[in-house]
Design brief:
Layout (H helix, E strand, L loop, with lengths): L8 H13 L4 H13 L2 H23 L4 H22 L6 E2 L5 E2 L3
Antiparallel strand pairs: 1-2
Helix pairs in contact: 1-2, 1-3
Length: 107
């Protein structure tokens, strides 16, 4: 739903998670602030997003750090994947395969 000053409720709702984290640019932050005065339901949605973020943070805190065995496995898998990409891209051992499949660094 849009109102006369160009505020669209659906668009503002998509911006709310970024507003909560403070990562909006100034223009969009001002639009959300204006929207809060026009659409009171946005304030309820902000509180819901904040509660969800806190719950996710608590879950992450409760998980703790991975065990040494799990961390070693992840790092080993990552190293193997990088080596495989280097071989596929024809890179030498000191080069890195970039995401597009080419090589970066020296051979």
């Amino acid at each position: 739903m849009a109102v006369g000053d160009g505020l669209d409720l659906a668009e503002l709702e998509r911006l709310l998670p970024f507003h909560v984290t403070g990562t909006l640019n100034n223009r969009d932050a001002r639009r959300v602030e204006r929207g809060l005065s026009v659409f009171p339901e946005l304030a309820l949605r902000i509180r819901q997003i904040q509660r969800e973020r806190m719950a996710i943070a608590r879950l992450g805190d409760n998980l703790g750090s991975p065990s040494d065995r799990v961390l070693a496995g992840v790092l080993s898998a990552a190293a193997g994947r990088c080596a495989s990409k280097r071989r596929m891209a024809g890179c030498g051992t000191t080069a890195f395969a970039d995401p597009s499949g080419g090589c970066m660094g020296s051979e």
